């Protein structure tokens, strides 16, 4: 088949690309839909013609052929005030997801939770949406109805935390929150802190549950009395840290483990208002290692959390499921490490 010129006065279609590349229409279709059984040389020749002609596949037509929309959903069941208070965690997570979807020619549809009054309508809108080939769920409560629904309907999905149930049936990417929290508290004990309080994360989310479990286990293994008054329940927010710190100060703490860096910032504000010196009077440790950790004074000791990588890995697993590259649930636990800075008292000067 000899190459043909294409008139600039009409839209380019698969037949045109095939004619100019000297291949069959079905070969062009396989290249466009990223299917196998095309040699590298032929694929590159077809792609060169596609780039030259500025050809863009019709999304509706491609969806009819492939049964895919090239769109994934990212569901964050958080009310916006909580979501956007943290100017780093969710943007970093979304950046990781976006990096992978962009590289693999997918779009991302973001679903943000609304107020409690609209919760039922929100769930219904997500579940009934037909535009998504699969879904990433981030920071969902343990009883979130999406999990059961997507399992029942065989919808590809990945959690960005450890599920509380069906672990062998669900793909997820997480960190070992319990071990990371254990390391924080053990570190504080080695520094001579013996009345260690904590402002927890959201205890309806497994990240929050596991960090509290690590705190408890570290106190037990260190031979310290577990005093429930030293646990201030929070929700990963600045306000929780601020209010929780006042409660813990009244209990005579000499250290506070905040379940997130945002929460730790609230702790700092409360300690400053009480004229409590960090770390001389009270040591403070956070969790996440967000960029703000080095911008507060004293700099924040915290757990490094590979947030962007977690998003990228979740997107990779989901797209591999959609494309049929993996057929069994995938679970990844990414490494963390404690970043020692001044707020814990281990560094001076």
Explain this structure to me?
With 349 residues, the chain is of the alpha/beta class. The protein has 3 domains: 14-66, lambda repressor-like DNA-binding domains (434 Repressor (Amino-terminal Domain), Orthogonal Bundle); 71-176 and 310-335, 3-Layer(aba) Sandwich (Rossmann fold); 177-305 and 338-344, Response regulator (Rossmann fold, 3-Layer(aba) Sandwich), CATH 3.40.50. The chain has helices at residues 14-21, 25-32, 40-53, 59-66, 80-85, 89-103, 119-128, 145-152, 177-190, 206-221, 238-249, 261-273, 307-322, and strands spanning 71-76, 107-112, 134-137, 157-159, 171-175, 196-202, 231-234, 255-258, 283-285, 302-304, 331-334, 337-339. The strands form 3 sheets. Strands 2-1-3-4-5-11 form a 6-stranded parallel β-sheet, with helices on one face. A 4-stranded parallel β-sheet has the order 7-6-8-9, with helices on both faces. Strands 10-12 form a two-stranded antiparallel ribbon. Helix 12 links the parallel strand 8 and strand 9. Helix 6 runs parallel beside helix 13 (307-322) and helix 11 (238-249) packs across helix 12. The longest helix is centred in the middle third of the chain and has 16 residues, at 206-221. Mean pLDDT is 87; it is low at 1-10.
């Amino acid at each position: 088949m000899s190459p043909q010129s294409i008139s600039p006065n009409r839209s380019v279609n698969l037949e045109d690309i095939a004619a100019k590349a000297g291949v069959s229409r079905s070969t062009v279709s396989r290249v466009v839909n990223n299917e196998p059984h095309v040699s590298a040389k032929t694929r590159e020749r077809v792609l060169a013609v596609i780039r030259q002609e500025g050809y863009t596949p019709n999304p509706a037509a491609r969806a009819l052929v492939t049964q895919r929309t090239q769109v994934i959903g990212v569901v964050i069941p958080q009310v916006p005030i909580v979501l956007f208070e943290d100017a780093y965690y969710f943007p970093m997570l979304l950046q990781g997801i976006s990096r992978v979807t962009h590289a693999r020619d997918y779009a991302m549809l973001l679903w943000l939770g609304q107020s409690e009054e609209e919760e039922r309508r929100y769930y219904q809108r997500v579940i009934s949406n037909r535009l998504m080939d699969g879904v990433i769920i981030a920071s969902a409560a343990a009883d979130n109805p999406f999990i059961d629904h997507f399992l029942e309907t065989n919808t590809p999905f990945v959690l960005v935390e450890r599920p509380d149930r069906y672990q062998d049936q669900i793909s997820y990417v997480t960190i070992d929150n319990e071990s990371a929290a254990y390391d924080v508290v053990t570190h504080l004990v080695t520094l001579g802190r013996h009345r260690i309080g904590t402002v927890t994360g959201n205890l309806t989310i497994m990240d929050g549950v596991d960090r509290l479990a690590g705190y408890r286990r570290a106190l037990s293994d260190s031979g310290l009395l577990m005093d429930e008054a030293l646990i201030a329940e929070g929700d990963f927010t600045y306000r929780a840290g601020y209010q929780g710190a006042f409660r813990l100060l009244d209990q005579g703490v000499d250290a506070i483990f905040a379940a997130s860096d945002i929460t730790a910032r609230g702790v700092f504000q409360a300690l400053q208002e009480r004229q409590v010196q960090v770390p001389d009077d009270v040591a403070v440790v956070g969790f996440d290692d967000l960029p703000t950790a080095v911008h507060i004074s004293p700099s924040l000791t915290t757990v490094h959390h590979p947030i962007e990588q977690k998003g990228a890995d979740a997107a990779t697993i989901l797209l591999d499921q959609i494309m049929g590259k993996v057929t069994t649930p995938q679970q990844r636990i990414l490494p963390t490490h404690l970043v020692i800075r001044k707020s814990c008292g281990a560094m001076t000067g």
